[in-house]
Amino acid sequence: MSTHAARPPAHQHVGLRPLVTSHWTWLAIGLIVAFAVPFLLADLLALNRDLFYGLYALAVFELFWLWTRSTGFDFIAAVRRRWLAASLLGLAAAGVLGAMVVRTEAATARPAGIDVVAAVLWRGVVYGATDGCSCRCFRS
């Protein structure tokens, strides 16, 4: 007879019980957050675009973190297993969406010099990663 107590699954910690484990529930929460945060921050409060991106990213990454903890999704294992496909699909989606924006949006003031690099990293990479992360939550 073993004297060791049974260990909880890797996604559970002693004293921490997930409140929501259903992927359908997380999908509903994600849809609400995806609508409510931009509506409140961009439409009602009319925040600066860059500030909005940061707050939206925080909300989405927090939702993603809670989802992975609650459902036991192993993000690191998924990245290791599917990094090439995810990278190729991400680049393809970026190309299509970039072309759509360039062809349909009216021109706005454009940054120059180092501001271009900052805009690409902040608006492109951070906001793109945020949307990619939120899409992963919805595809659970």
Architecture blueprint of SSEs:
Layout: H1 23-44, H2 49-71, H3 75-104, H4 114-138
Number of helices: 4
Helix-strand makeup class? mainly alpha
Provide the succession of SSEs.
Answer: HHHH
The whole-angstrom Rg is 19 Å
The unreliable regions are none
Distance between the termini: 39 Å
Query: How much of the residues is beta strand, in percent?
Result: under 5%
Beta strands, count:
0
Mean pLDDT score: 75
Characterize the biggest β-sheet. none
Helix content: over 70%
* Inertia-based shape: globular
List the domain count as a whole number: 1
Structure overview:
The chain is mostly helical and 140 residues long. It has one domain. The protein is 71% helix and 0% strand. It is built from 4 helices and no strands. It has helices at residues 23-44, 49-71, 75-104, 114-138. Helix 1 runs antiparallel to helix 2. The mean pLDDT is 75.
Provide a compact summary of the structure.
With 140 residues, this protein is mostly helical. The protein has one domain.
Question: What are the salient characteristics of this protein?
Answer:
single chain; 140 residues; mainly alpha; 71% helix
